[in-house]
């Protein structure tokens, strides 16, 4: 801004200088140089013009400085005052931003603490306290996925399957239908309500989103037993074992299924594996007796 003002003033000064020179030029040309030697005539004429130009320029520049000095001072005062205002506004914005961030952090921590406490109430079967606490948490953070999942679990434990299903379906909207755990919970609810085909569909969706979770495969295998599809149950359980080769629960399931299918060789294979990974398992003796009874 200062540079622009000075440039304008200098331009105006130059125009004024040209005007003054043009106005006084006839006088300069009337200087009597006829009596001077010809060799000095041009040099002295040039010097006279130069001196007059220098004096005119100094007068003009002095006026420019006198004129611009108050403007400069006023501008500097204006700039300093407004600069301080801007700095004050900036500090206030930073303070508010910090307070907001601190508030958000505190709120997030409070919600996390409430979820932890609600889990404890759920474990202690104090379902009403767990529900009240989770609803309070969701009033502070209405998109908290963990709180919704735990709330659905509370409803399941209270056999309030409609509320549990509605909560999980809302969760699917929040997660753009890409949360494997939500489909897994929906499958469990469908199974508990006797809707086995719907349970199968939801288990398959959970597996499609997370095909490295052995529990999803094992749950689906257990469902196939309920659907009386032993072949699919075996294939699915074997996939679960492939993901968790030393899992006693999967081996337990495969031994039981092999016995149901009267496949003695397969049952012994999985029993040997169980003895290897969990030799103290108290089911080994019972499995051994049941396998021996197979033809």
Describe this protein's structure:
The protein is mainly α. Helices cover about 85% and strands about 0% of the residues. The protein is built from 12 helices and no strands. Helix 2 (about 40-125) packs antiparallel against helix 3, helix 2 packs parallel to helix 4 and helix 8 (about 215-225) packs antiparallel against helix 9. The N and C termini lie far apart (about 100 Å).
SSE inventory with pairings:
Layout: H1 2-29, H2 38-123, H3 127-140, H4 145-157, H5 161-174, H6 180-192, H7 196-209, H8 214-226, H9 230-243, H10 248-260, H11 264-277, H12 284-292
Helix pairs in contact: 1-2, 2-3, 2-4, 3-4, 4-5, 5-6, 6-7, 7-8, 8-9, 9-10, 10-11, 11-12
Keywords:
295 residues; mainly alpha; 83% helix; 0% strand; elongated
Mean pLDDT: 79
Number of helices: 12
Q: If you compute it from the alpha carbons, what radius of gyration comes out, rounded to the nearest whole angstrom?
A: 46 Å
> Low-confidence runs (pLDDT<50, min 5 residues)?
16-41
Largest sheet: none
> Kindly, what is the distance between the CA atoms of the first and last residues, rounded to a whole number of angstroms?
102 Å
Instruction: Provide the β-strand percentage band.
Output: under 5%
Compute the number of strand runs: 0
The backbone outline, from C-alpha atoms, is elongated
Order of helices and strands: HHHHHHHHHHHH
Structural class: mainly alpha
Instruction: Assign a percent range to the helix content.
Output: over 70%
């Amino acid at each position: 801004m200062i540079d622009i003002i000075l440039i304008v003033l200098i331009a105006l000064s130059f125009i004024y200088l040209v005007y003054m020179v043009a106005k006084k030029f006839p006088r300069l040309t009337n200087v009597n140089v006829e009596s001077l030697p010809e060799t000095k005539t041009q040099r002295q004429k040039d010097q006279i013009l130069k001196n007059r130009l220098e004096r005119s320029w100094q007068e003009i520049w002095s006026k420019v400085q006198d004129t611009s000095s108050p403007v400069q001072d006023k501008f500097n005062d204006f700039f300093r005052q407004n600069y301080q205002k801007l700095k004050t506004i900036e500090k206030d914005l930073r303070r508010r931003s910090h307070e907001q961030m601190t508030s958000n952090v505190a709120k997030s921590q409070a919600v996390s603490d409430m979820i932890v406490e609600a889990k404890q109430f759920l474990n202690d079967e104090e379902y009403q306290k767990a529900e009240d606490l989770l609803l309070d948490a969701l009033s502070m953070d209405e998109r908290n996925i963990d709180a919704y999942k735990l709330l659905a679990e509370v409803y399941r434990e209270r056999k309030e399957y409609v509320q549990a299903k509605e909560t999980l379906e809302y969760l699917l909207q929040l997660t753009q239908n890409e949360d494997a755990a939500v489909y897994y919970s929906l499958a469990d609810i469908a199974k508990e309500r006797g809707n086995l085909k719907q349970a199968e569909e939801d288990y398959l969706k959970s597996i499609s989103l997370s095909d490295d979770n052995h529990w999803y495969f094992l749950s689906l295998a257990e469902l196939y037993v309920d659907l009386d599809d032993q072949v699919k149950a075996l294939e699915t359980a074997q996939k679960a074992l492939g993901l968790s080769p030393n899992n006693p629960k999967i081996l337990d399931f495969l031994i039981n299924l092999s016995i149901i299918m009267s496949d003695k060789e397969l049952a012994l294979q999985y029993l040997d594996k169980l003895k290897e990974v969990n030799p103290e398992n108290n089911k080994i003796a019972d499995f051994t007796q049941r396998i021996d009874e197979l033809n």
